[in-house]
Amino acid sequence: MSSEQLMSLREHLSELKRRFKVAFGSFIVLLAILLIVPADPETFLSQGYTGFTPVIAFFISRVKLELFPAGWKFIAVSINEPLEIYIVASVLFAVIFNAPIFAYETIKFVSPGLKESERKLIYPFVGAITGLFAFGAAFGFFFLAKFLLAALTPFFTFTGIVPPTIDAANFYFIVFLTIAMSGIAFTVPVYVYTLIRFGVVQAASFRKNRIIIWAITYILCAIITPDGGPFLDVLLFVPIITLLEVAVFIGGRSRAGVLKKQARDDARSGATAPPSGPAPPPPPAPSGVSAPDLQVGTTVVAPAAASAVRTNCPYCDFPISPGTAFCPNCNRAIE
User: Fold this and answer.
1) What torsion, rounded to 10 degrees, do the Cα atoms 177, 183, 189, 192 define?
2) Parallel, antiparallel, or unpaired: how do β-strands 73-75 and 165-167 relate?
3) Dihedral through CA 237, CA 243, CA 247, CA 249, nearest 10?
4) Cα dihedral across residues 261, 262, 265, 271: positive or negative
5) What stretch of H or E contains 89?
6) If you ran DSSP here, which 8-state letter would residue 141 be given?
7) Are strands 165-167 and 311-312 parallel, antiparallel or unpaired?
8) Residue 117 CB neighbour total at 10 angstroms
9) Which end of the chain, N or C, is less packed with Cβ atoms under 10 Å?
10) What pLDDT score does 301 carry?
11) What's the CA gap between 18 and 7, in Å, rounded?
């Protein structure tokens, strides 16, 4: 490896280290705010330690207020269980709040290696990821987790556990898991769109294997939702598969537009590109025609060279580049 390559590698690692420090530092700051900053500074200043309530306690209390079913009771099976809830909740919310900063630092690290057309898609990609994750987390909080707890309530009566009693850590961990996994699941269509947009996979492949993809998605939804039965699985499956189908449709249209633009650019560049290299020798004179009778400077265009510049789809007659596997207009395979 040359010294220039080593220097380039060192520079990349140094840049990665610097970006990681910023992202990790912001995570630590957010975690500290959630853990030690009082949610009500006025009460803390007036009452001291007895009036201290951290910021994370606000989010924990909201989870209990919104989701804890009426008539249920909490128990703690170990003395350190409240501390575990306190720390796990703080880490989870710090990761969620730090996600935009982490995404920004990742973009700034990889953007120098991307093309100009690819850089234009970075910020929409991050915006879509952030928005869909927030929407999915809200969906998990207000719908999935609430329905999950409501669906499990009758089983306490069936088994004679009255009033329903639940371990506090188990309750919060299930709620946090449902919210996080719902948020992650809602971001999958963005990755599908990106793969289709850049030609890694074909939209036709998704349409052809739609039933298999739907079945796999339903199984993953059943794994993501801890309990609640088939109805809870369907409740998560319907919006995700809807977003997935929209992503495939938009991604296919976007990819077709990219291929059309490439075909037009190739045809335009082939028609205007000047000839390179020495001029080919003139063709031999036909029989009965002397060499002086040939006009000097006559250009002869070979049919093969003309056809190599541009060709058409045999099905819809759309102009495509040589070697194209699928027509961007009708999506049929070019034999």
Assistant:
1) -60
2) parallel
3) 90
4) negative
5) helix 81-110
6) I
7) unpaired
8) 9
9) C
10) 45
11) 16
